[in-house]
Amino acid sequence: MRAMNFQKILVPVGAIVLLGLAWRSGGWGGVALAGGAIVMFLLLHFHRAMQVLKRAADRPIGYVASAVMLNAKLKQGVTLMHVIAMTRALGELRSPKDEQPELYRWTDTGGSYVDAVFNGGKLQSWTLTRPEAAPDDPPSSEDGKAG
């Protein structure tokens, strides 16, 4: 949680420092250039977020093509937006709304699922659960042995 608060303060302070340096070196022209760069940066991030959410809107909530592949690709510290971009689907919220940490689940057609825990929007941990094979499944008669 500390890192999250630090980032919330550092980014605006960095933008103000950039604008101050631009004023000092180029006057109003420098401020306009730096301001334009900051606005462009914000627009690019906003556009990426909208594209990710637009792709995810077309898929069922909590669905992923392969839970095993998702499990292999996840890394601690990635953002929820990054995971949504990887899965192209919103996760199924399994924890109480607006409560930290948040637990999301992505399930594939085979019944395997990944439960991911996010704290402050960053991935903390995840677990892959695969369905157990039914015990009454008979073994295949074609076991590769010549008879």
Describe, in plain words, how this protein is organized in 3D.
Strands 1-2-3-4 form a 4-stranded antiparallel beta sheet, covered by helices on one side. It has helices at 2-57, 67-73, 80-87; strands at 92-93, 102-107, 113-119, 122-129. α1 packs parallel to α3 (80-87). A hairpin with an 8-residue loop joins β1 (92-93) and β2. Mean pLDDT is 86; it is low at 143-147. The protein is an alpha+beta fold. The radius of gyration is 23 Å and the shape is elongated.
What descriptors fit this protein?
147 residues; Beta-lactamase Inhibitory Protein, Chain:B, domain 1; 2 domains; 3 helices; 48% helix; disordered C terminus; kinase; kinase activity; Glycerate kinase; transmembrane helix
What's the helix and strand layout?
Elements lengths: L1 H56 L9 H7 L6 H8 L4 E2 L8 E6 L5 E7 L2 E8 L18
Antiparallel strand pairs: 1-2, 2-3, 3-4
GO molecular function: kinase activity
Protein name: Glycerate kinase
Keywords: Kinase, Membrane, Transferase, Transmembrane, Transmembrane helix
Summarize the structure.
This protein is an alpha+beta fold. The protein has helices at 2-57, 67-73, 80-87, and strands spanning 92-93, 102-107, 113-119, 122-129. It has two domains: 1-58, no CATH class; 59-129, Beta-lactamase Inhibitory Protein, Chain:B, domain 1, CATH 3.30.1450.10.
- Name the poorly predicted regions: 143-147
Q: Give a short account of the largest sheet.
A: 4 strands, antiparallel
Structural class: alpha+beta
- The CATH class of the largest domain turns out to be Alpha Beta
- What's the order of the H and E elements? HHHEEEE
What Rg, in angstroms, do the CA atoms define? 23 Å
- Secondary structure: helix percent: 40-55%
Total strands: the figure is: 4
CATH architecture of the largest domain: 2-Layer Sandwich
Distance between the termini: 65 Å
Mean of all residue-level pLDDT scores: 86
Strand line-up across the major sheet: 1-2-3-4
What's the total helix number? 3
Protein name: Glycerate kinase
Keywords: Kinase, Membrane, Transferase, Transmembrane, Transmembrane helix
Organism: Variovorax beijingensis
GO molecular function, one term: kinase activity
